[in-house]
């Protein structure tokens, strides 16, 4: 298991919502998560498509943060 802490200084509700959105964007079938995640606050009322779009944006933001902080992007040719 790999655990990366990308988004700092968030409330637990924000963290749960971000996690749920990113899981929805990746698709649970592509992950080993037992649960899909919990949406909190007003995002809980959003459509599934809006949640997936939020998750995709969060994933791109996370990638940008990790690259900025010195992580090297993975290349499919390396596997």
**Strand content bin:** under 5%
> Number of helical segments?
2
Helix content: 40-55%
The description of the largest β-sheet is: none
Class by helix and strand content? mainly alpha
Q: What distance lies between the first and last C-alpha atoms, to the nearest angstrom?
A: 18 Å
The 3D shape can be described as globular
What order do the SSEs take from the amino end to the carboxyl end, as H and E?
A: HH
Low-confidence stretches: none
Number of strands: 0
Rg estimate, integer Å: 13 Å
Q: Average pLDDT value?
A: 86
| Number of structural domains | 1
List the helices and strands and how they pair.
Blueprint: H1 12-26, H2 48-68
Helix pairs in contact: 1-2
Question: Could you explain how this protein is built, in words?
Answer:
Helix content is 46%, strand content 0%. α1 packs across α2. The model has no long low-confidence stretch (mean pLDDT 86). The protein has helices spanning 12-26, 48-68. It contains 2 helices and no strands. The chain has one domain (12-70). The chain is mainly alpha-helical.
């Amino acid at each position: 298991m790999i655990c990366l802490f990308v988004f700092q200084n968030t409330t637990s509700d924000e963290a749960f919502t971000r996690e749920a959105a990113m899981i929805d964007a990746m698709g649970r079938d592509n992950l080993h998560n037992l649960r899909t995640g919990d949406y909190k606050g007003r995002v809980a009322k959003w459509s599934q498509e809006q949640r997936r779009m939020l998750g995709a944006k969060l994933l791109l933001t996370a990638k940008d943060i990790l690259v900025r902080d010195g992580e090297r992007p993975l290349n499919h040719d390396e596997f």
